[in-house]
Amino acid sequence: MKYLIGTRGSQLSVAQTNWVVSELKSENPDSDYEIKTITTKGDTDARPLFTINQKGIFEKEIDKAVAEKQVDFAVHSLKDVPSILPDDLILGCVPSREPYNDIFISKNGDTLETIPEGSTIGTSSLRRVVQVSRKRPDLTVKNIRGNVETRIKKVQDGTFDGIVLAQAGINRLGVNVKHTSLSTIDFPPSPGQGALGIVCRKNDQITISMLKKIEDQNTRLAVESERALSEFVDSGCRFPVGAFAQVNGENLDLTVVAYSIDGKQALIVNKSGPKSNSYQIGKEAADELQRKGVNDLAKDWRAKLDEWNKT
Ligand SMILES: NCc1[nH]cc(CCC(=O)O)c1CC(=O)O
């Protein structure tokens, strides 16, 4: 059987799709796979990510191609996939996850703690903006666009003194760049960070069965609880929320953090339970965030976005 795979044309997307193909080939040696790259709004719109008023800016066009049978399935970075998919599509497979932590890259090997006062840090994620500002309020945090390799070049050419990226991105690209890991206590990652999401058609049983052979059950359960949170609390590029879940034996431990847009407040919730209740654990964490006033935190994010638009 031959399968057509949709993905973005970025080096990272192609690298992670090639990895998926190698995993699938190992389990389905008689199948063939061809990659079709598709441009998304996130690839062409140069504005700061969180000002673009569209969920799924890095995946919508690709999932449309799946729905219209132009491709058989799509490979995404899971954190770029909205928690609610169109009715005719499903998250058909979640393979094993890369580490979900963020990393800090600077030109001279400085860490986030040692980089000189007043340095300029680049990120396109509001979550990272508030997390950097909480650790180092003296630093200037500015919007950066471009793919992983472009951002690293902007540190090396001095455009930025430092940047924050996902560990998973440089791992998958095999980029050998000096960096320091950022703790998930200070930098809880985006829900689903480090994981891949393979989207296919709900009624395509042949493709689903083929994909399931590389499913990683514990990763599925962990991201299910992180994404359940996103269903109830707006997150991603537009609202600073961090979440990470760990499966320990039969248990699942979830930590979620929501920030005020100025970074001065942080609502932290820890929830644990049987890993089979992953979705419920995520929902309970969201409910507790609501009780702690998360909606009040979001109310002034638009003013901050307008301010950011001018940077
Ligand atoms: N759209 C940004 C994006 N989507 C996925 C990753 C990294 C890989 C991952 O989280 O799986 C990145 C880059 C980054 O955050 O550094």
From TrEMBL:
Pathway terms, separated by semicolons: Porphyrin-containing compound metabolism; protoporphyrin-IX biosynthesis; coproporphyrinogen-III from 5-aminolevulinate: step 2/4
Enzyme class, spelled out: transferase
InterPro entries with a match to the protein in the record: HemC (IPR000860), Porphobilin_deaminase_N (IPR022417), Porphobilinogen_deaminase_C (IPR022418), Porphobilinogen_deaminase_C_sf (IPR036803)
Cofactor binding description: Binds 1 dipyrromethane group covalently.
One GO CC annotation: cytoplasm
Pfam family, one: Porphobil_deam
Residue stretches in coiled coil: none
Enzyme Commission identifier(s): 2.5.1.61
Reactions performed catalytically: 4 porphobilinogen + H2O = hydroxymethylbilane + 4 NH4(+)
A GO BP entry: protoporphyrinogen IX biosynthetic process
Keyword Cell wall biogenesis/degradation: no
Summary of the function given for this chain in its UniProt record: Tetrapolymerization of the monopyrrole PBG into the hydroxymethylbilane pre-uroporphyrinogen in several discrete steps.
Comment field (misc): The porphobilinogen subunits are added to the dipyrromethane group.
Protein name, per record: Probable porphobilinogen deaminase
Source organism (scientific name): Candidatus Nitrosotenuis cloacae
Source species taxonomy: Archaea, Nitrososphaerota, Candidatus Nitrosotenuis
